[in-house]
Each structure stands twice: as C-alpha cells, then as structure tokens.
Specification:
8% helix; mainly beta; 40% strand; 75 residues; single chain
Length: 75
C-alpha cells in the first residue's frame, strides 16, 4: 500500500530524531545538550476506505484528517 493520501497528497517525510540530554536552564540545570541526530521517518495515518468516487464505489487510501473533515463520502 502506498503511503500517500489520494485526496490531499500527504505522504511520508524524512527528518531527524534529536536526543536532548541534560536538565534545561529554566529548571535549574546547565542547559540541554544535543546528541547525535539519527534519521527517522514521519508517516501519515493512512486508512483504506470504501468511498463514492463519482457514481461508483472504490477503495481508496485516505489520511484520517481528510476522512474526519468530510472530504470523503463513504459508500
């Protein structure tokens, strides 16, 4: 299953996992120190839904935000 919403086009995005060590200065520490960044992937919440596309029923991949906002008419 492709991790892409067929309505809005939302897909996976690459980024970094940033470990922060130490107590913040605001809480009385010496400040936070950033460790070694490692790659990570942000994946959208995609679900398969039977929806009405035109006049026929189709199974499409939709993100839950589009589903909740009413952009998809469920069959």
């Amino acid at each position: 299953m492709a991790r892409r919403c067929e309505i809005c086009g939302k897909g996976t995005v690459a980024g970094h996992s940033v470990p922060r060590k130490g107590q913040p200065k605001k809480q009385g520490g010496a400040g936070q120190h950033i460790g070694v960044k490692s790659k990570r992937v942000f994946r959208p919440n995609i679900v398969k839904v039977k929806a009405l596309v035109g006049t026929q029923k189709k199974t499409i991949n939709v993100c839950t935000r589009c589903l909740r906002s009413g952009k998809v008419v469920k069959a």
